[in-house]
Amino acid sequence: MSTERRRRMPRAQRERQMVTVAEEMFAERGYQAASMDEIAERVGVSKPMLYEYFGSKEGLLVACIRRARAELLAAITGAVDGVANPEDALRAGLVAFFEFTDSHRRAWQLIRREAVAAGQAAADEIEAIRAQQSAIDAALLARFRPDAPQRDLEAAAEIIVGACERLSIWYVERDGLDRVTAKQAAEYVMDLLWYGLRSTLGSPT
Amino acid sequence: MSTERRRRMPRAQRERQMVTVAEEMFAERGYQAASMDEIAERVGVSKPMLYEYFGSKEGLLVACIRRARAELLAAITGAVDGVANPEDALRAGLVAFFEFTDSHRRAWQLIRREAVAAGQAAADEIEAIRAQQSAIDAALLARFRPDAPQRDLEAAAEIIVGACERLSIWYVERDGLDRVTAKQAAEYVMDLLWYGLRSTLGSPT
DNA sequence: AGTCTAACTTACTCGAAGTAGGTTACCTCC
DNA sequence: GGAGGTAACCTACTTCGAGTAAGTTAGACT
After folding, report:
1. N or C: at which end does chain A have fewer Cβ atoms within 10 angstroms?
2. Which domains does chain B have, with CATH numbers?
3. Is the minimum CB–CB distance between A30 and chain B shorter than 8 Å?
4. Does position B151 have pLDDT exceeding 70, yes or no?
5. What is the pTM of this model?
6. Three-state DSSP class for residue B114
7. Distance from first CA to last CA of chain A, Å, rounded?
């Protein structure tokens, strides 16, 4: 008889734990198939607590996504900050991105696969990640080519984000055979895009 | 009192009608929120018929996705077929893609937003669309540069597919203001990528 | 007219999301 | 150290929609 009494926890700590468990469950079983009862049980708490803190199943998913987004943002800004040369900054950002998707596979899987299961809110949250990425890229490009029209910068940023998202999936999936590193993935993107970026967004340096 | 007697239909025809209605409903309300009862009602048939023909709600979603995929494939192969010059072929394919996402907004929304709601099967089906796109692109690039290593071709194809997917969303969303046409979207992609493609995948032409 | 089957129905079960309302551990202030 | 307040927690329910069992009719073809 384990006399392990369930400890009470302050809300913030419990929430973090719940998000962690939910992330596991969603990634493992898929959003739909994961049940709130089971998540609650694994946390060691009853279902209404989840609803107390997150409002709904989708709310819980949103919390998972939001946390991943914050972490991704931190990783990238950390890598880019203080790098003066735009080319190096972009490269550093790309490497950080691929490293993140590699090391946070669970969260990344969640984002790309369980995306919109729940509805609007979760979809918006994921879209917000992409928007965040685009904004970073657009800002970076703007620093590089202040003269280029806004629309072109946006389009270029979208292309970069899309390319990275897709390449990261490819890259994570060909895990076993013939490993591609984060650096190589970043190089692929740089090689394909950098010429275009230089020539399209105004006169070359 | 409308004496409109419900007509019986052969299976194939009824299935097509069901997929059409389901596509509408899923796009309109989201996968989760759309109910099988309501879809059945709108079709003018009872729920078990849907299950008879599609097995499950997810099966119905898969059927929607699959149809859109077939249409997309037809549109692109139609555009690319017979174009000898690789650059023009790629451009024609891109234009066809953006035209498709523009004219089939409903289906496209469905694909990008209701993606993985249901589970594995639907996710796989969507992934299959991307794989289809990548394969087309990789084949195209291979024709252009038969000497380049397989892995580089794959990476380039993934980048193109990701860039297009993302750009098409951006493009469809900035609908009102300052319209971007399918041709322009394709041009953005070409401008950014073509230099890179020429220089990366072997020696320039 | 009789028969066979594909197209269709009504009327259910079952499981998981979400909720109403009450209980208990822990901190605080005297 | 006891009273009181509140944040953390629970049991026991309702509801709603996915999925199903078993039977019914239209209409095609002898």
Report:
1. N
2. 2-58 (1.10.10.60), 63-201 (1.10.357.10)
3. yes
4. yes
5. 0.88
6. coil
7. 73
